[in-house]
Fold this sequence. Notes:
By secondary structure, chain A is α/β, with parallel strands linked by helices. Chain A has helices spanning 59-67, 89-95, 112-119, 136-155, 171-183, 201-216, 228-234, 252-257, 259-266; strands at 21-30, 33-43, 48-52, 74-79, 82-83, 97-99, 189-193, 220-224, 237-242, 245-250. Chain A has a 6-stranded mixed β-sheet, with helices on both faces. Chain A has a 4-stranded antiparallel β-sheet with strand order 2-1-4-5, with helices on one face. In chain A, helix 3 (112-119) crosses helix 4 (136-155). Chain A starts with 20 loop residues before the first strand and ends in a 5-residue tail after the last helix. By secondary structure, chain B is mainly alpha-helical. Chain B has helices spanning 4-36, 43-60, 65-88, 97-118, 143-165, 167-177, 179-184, 189-211, 221-236, 241-261, 264-281; strands at residues 133-136, 139-142. The termini of chain B are far apart. Chain C has helices at 4-35, 39-64, 72-88, 94-116, 121-141, 143-146, 174-196, 199-209, 211-216, 221-247, 257-270, 276-291, 298-313, 317-341; strands at residues 161-162, 168-169. Helices cover 76% and strands 1% of the residues of chain C. Chains in contact: A-B, A-C, B-C.
Amino acid sequence: MLEIKSGTAGGTSPAGVKPLFDVGNISKRFGGIHAVRSVSFEVVEGTVFAIIGPNGAGKSTLLNLLSGNYQVDSGSLTFDGVNLAGKPAYERARLGIARTFQKIRLFKQLTVLENVVAGFHIHRRIPVLEYIWPLQAAEADRCRWREEALELLTFVGLKDRADVVAGSLAYGQQRLLEIARALATRPRLFMLDEPAAGLNNAEADFLLERLDMLRKRRMTVVLVEHNMELVMNVADRIYVLEAGQQLFVGSPAEVQNDPAVIAAYLGEELH
Amino acid sequence: MLDLLPILAQQIINGLVLGSIYVLATLGLTLIFGVLGQINFAHADFMTLGAFAAYFVARASGGNYLIAIVAALLVGALLGLVVNQAVFSLLRGQDETRPLVATIGVSVLLENAALAFLGPVPYTFDSPYSSQVIRAAGMYFTMQSVLVMFIAVLAVGSLYAFLKLTFVGKALRALSQDQEAAGLMGINKKALIALTFVVGSAFAGLAGAMLGPILVLTPFAGATVIVKCFAIVIIGGFGNVEGTIVAGLMIGLIESFTTQMLSPGMSDIVVFGILLLTLAVRPTGLIAERREENV
Amino acid sequence: MVDPMTLSNTRSARGTSRWLGLLTCVAVIVVLPLIFRDAYWRGIITICAINILLAIGLDFIFGFAGQLSLGHSAFAGIGAYTSTVLVTALGANFWVALVCGVVCAGLAGVLLSAFAVRLKGHYLAIASLGFAVITYQILVNWISVTQGPLGIYGIPPPPSISIPGLQTINFSNHQAFFYLVSAFALLTYVLLRNLTRSPIGDALTAVREDEISAASLGIKGTKWKMMAFGIGCAIAGLAGCFYASFIGTLVPDAFFITESFMILAMVVIGGRGNLWGAVLGAVLLTVVPELLRGIGDFRLVAYGLALTLVALFLPGGLSGVLIQSARRFNGSVTRAKSETHA
């Protein structure tokens, strides 16, 4: 089931508490372009940390650097005390970092249920050889995963579509399926890359509810988003990125009132 | 020591001649991959059929090799057009291995059709120039070699001029760099891809006409060369014209030297060893730029 | 929640149908040499069993792990030559040599995969082709070991096995040899099928469908691709060992890249990603060319045409077509049932 982790809610790290995710001065260049430059922040366990910024600010690149799809050129990345430098994406997933993608990356030929079950693979303990002539334990594992997968699908509202081919789902439902699949890995940190992109208002509201429920269960979330309403309603702390660099970091109220942020990005939209 | 010089030079010339043919054969693949991102396996058979076209036209015209070359060009171009329309247009935007497998099917089809009509016995393709020998500076070349190099330089030069100077050529280069942007700029992708196929396959036919007198001419002649062409495409960098030229000449030289110093079979092993090494160390090719994967 | 009663019912139903399927296969295998009593057709069905091994091995690599390997027959060659040289030159026991052949082929597959594991699509395909060409050239040129193009002659069949109390099984008998190869083929099929229906199959499918999101689920693409290659190529090695023993002579040309394309055609035409499609393709492409011997060289044109058409229009192969028809049939049956109940 969804991991229930205790953690502190609210903005700043209490004194002496080590943050779950510690990003120290990371940078990334692509050829001549400095996509991310000296970015630092801390993510406290059990909080929702949002990254916002104008298009092209480098938000997705930043997320890719955190998840291991790109490697940093310089700087430090520490997750729960473990140094992430050089660790590829699959290793970080095994440490407890899950993510969704901006461009939906589902297993389109598989069914909805099979997609989520794939997420449970990370918990496999039985060695490969035992599957050649499966014993009871192996079969029991798979059954249990299917049941848990159905629970996750219930959480995202897709239970009755379990046997449908993933590629035939509506766009909004595909996004939710990606979330369910990522949650199957029972992550400690869940990163979402523009989950509300392309969703209509009703779908975005549903997503907001889900994120809120995750937050109440003390899941640590890093959220890259454009949808301001969603961000302001669910984030504990917001990091504003512009041209690869930090523009501001603070609580939603602080971000809304900072003149630099308003001038560069939010403008009239928020009031 | 000085005695070695003419032998060395001879090997270099042989290598360059062979390399020129490889360049001609491979340029088509490079161009097609550049704009389409696909490999045409049947390219081998365009070469074979180009060679046969040249053979029959040369026979029919009483030994006119030059007309035979033109015929080979046309046959290649036509085959390219047909395969593009029949296979690649249909499968646009699909999973990238499907067109490759389809072209393997076309290749098998063409080879066996050729086998059924032409038989397995090798044809002796004698270019009238093969027997004319020139002697210069202690080395021997056949007129054929000179002709091959001349045509290769002409063809590659024209292609280069086309790509750099004409509008269509520039459109082609734009297309190979960024499909989406090129489309937005009003470039007619379909027509351009078809043109690339025609030009690339014409080059294959031309290479076949050059290879005919050198190789054992059977329906499987192209197949023996094509695998090396793939190696060249990779070593030079997929879609990279300059890289193909350099890599093609390099492979021609390597093959010439290893055949002389070791054995013909070993040259294949050396060439493919280099291929696997390139893939392991620098998959985008020795000369191409690196590109990070877009997530 | 799924009703546990239904779950166990479906599980036992699936188990029963699997045993039934297995028994049918055994029955077919037993009966075939009794139907075909002449040496020629017994040879064809034996080659068919060998081709089934080759096809399911490639399906595991291509259909399940999504790796387009264009040089599969090279691994059969490695298995064939390793076991044959051990038997003919070093006098090794057939079964020991067989294991060595299988292991060598598997290791070669892992080696290729190690080179090619970061490559996608075209690069991998060409790397595998390059590997196959190198292997072929080694077989041709390493004359001291492989006898080169002249080949190795007089390869003996597996030694007879005497079962105490019963008779001796003599493998120069075509019927006995057929049973031997078929037994191995069936066993391999079952084991592979178990693997693919397990979380291992999930991992392979994830890697095939989208390696990047598979990584985000903790699935290490390179590890699974190497495993797929190791197992698939080991199976090819097994096929090669039997081939050498059956034909009695071994030449490098038997493992030229054109043979690889034939195996690929079996997998593509039969339909990849479900194992039985590969079996279907192997059977079709072994038997149909024999039936078409009348039209001479054009039968090979037919296989090229079939491959092209299937790749163009039937991405799921023949098994895909059959599955879709079955679904449509089931759908109409269910509809009819619900209509009568309404």
